[in-house]
Design brief:
The protein has six helices and five strands, in the order αβαβαβαβαβα. The protein is an alpha/beta fold and about 180 residues long. Strands 4-3-2-1-5 form a five-stranded parallel sheet, with helices on both faces. α2 packs parallel to α3.
Length: about 180
């Protein structure tokens, strides 16, 4: 007795019949990304902001939002006092913190004040403050003045804070254009 040999056409016909009979799925299940819940503990971040344009400060604050909000929301639900964040400012953005410019930067100042009330520390470089002709009295009341941004960067990293550079680039495309 002769055994029928397997040909590509025979294989296709057999798979088609099994699929029609419901014995095989019509198409393979689509693989997808796996959502993970990293067990974050003792989060400490040093957000470094050094901008070439004070108008970019609002975008730079999204780095703070992206750190704080996921940790204070489910599934983590951490208390703000358990999250340590220092925002170090030492570029053109310090003009937004000057009391005399409050009306011009009202929206960004509201966001900063909100985060300051949750425990986020906003520190300005004392050297940059001098470069711009400001004194501590010229700054908003939630601002702390440090001697130097560079020494602060080194100090807080030595204390276990992770450095988060707040990179803000000029947006060339909308999400819809590149999705």
């Amino acid at each position: 007795m002769k055994t029928p040999r397997s040909t590509p056409l025979n294989t296709i016909l057999l798979l088609s019949l099994l699929t029609l009979a419901g014995l095989l799925p019509a198409c393979p299940a689509q693989a997808q990304a796996k959502v993970v819940q990293t067990p974050y503990q003792n989060p400490k971040a040093l957000v470094d902001i050094f901008l070439d344009d004070p108008a970019k400060l609002g975008a730079a604050l999204y780095w703070v939002r992206s750190f704080v909000n996921p940790l204070t929301e489910a599934p983590y639900s951490m208390f703000p006092e358990d999250i340590k964040v220092i925002v170090l400012l030492h570029g053109t953005e310090i003009v937004a913190l000057a009391k005399k410019n409050a009306a011009r930067y009202e929206e960004v100042l509201q966001r900063m004040r909100y985060y300051a009330e949750t425990g986020v520390k906003f520190r300005v470089c004392g050297l940059a403050l001098q470069d711009y002709g400001y004194t501590p009295a010229d700054m908003q009341d939630f601002v702390e003045v440090a001697p130097s941004a560079i020494t602060e960067l080194v100090h807080w990293q030595n204390q276990g804070y992770a450095l988060v550079p707040a990179i803000v680039q000029d947006k060339k495309f909308s999400i819809e254009q590149i999705r």
